[in-house]
Amino acid sequence: MTELSHDQQRDFEAAAFRRLVEHLRQRTDVQNIDLMNLAGFCRNCLSNWYRDAAGAKGVDLTKEQSREIIYGMPYAEWQALHQTEASGPKQAAFELNRPKDH
């Protein structure tokens, strides 16, 4: 395996994260509940992790600020444009597998 410097690893991880966020912004057809049920995380999780990372470095972000960074727009706007009502089976699956921090 190629030996990576700390800076290379950080830069590659940041690039992969940016690509993931952009991919999720383009895939508005994929609902957060689908992500949670299949992968155990969603856009809101990413925004929470982003806010946690900022806080660890002394930068205070609100929940709304971190969500806007991930969604590319205010969360309420994204919900109005793209969020659909989750079916009963999707909601039941979410409740069965709900992470402890949700």
Description:
The chain has 6 helices and no strands. Helix 2 (32-39) crosses helix 6 and helix 3 (43-56) crosses helix 4 (63-71). It is globular, with a radius of gyration of 16 Å. It has one domain: SMc04008-like fold (Orthogonal Bundle), CATH 1.10.3340. It has helices at 6-26, 32-39, 43-56, 63-71, 75-82, 88-97. With 102 residues, the chain is mainly alpha-helical.
What distinguishing features does this structure have?
single chain; 102 residues; mainly alpha; SMc04008-like fold; globular
Q: Would you summarize the structure shown here?
A:
This protein is mostly helical. The protein is 69% helix and 0% strand. The longest helix is centred in the N-terminal third of the chain and has 21 residues, at 6-26.
* CATH topology (level 3) name: SMc04008-like fold
Q: Distance between the terminal alpha carbons, to the nearest Å?
A: 37 Å
Q: What is the count of β-strands?
A: 0
CATH superfamily: SMc04008-like
- Average pLDDT confidence is 95
Write the layout of secondary structure elements.
Blueprint: H1 6-26, H2 32-39, H3 43-56, H4 63-71, H5 75-82, H6 88-97
Helix pairs in contact: 2-6, 3-4
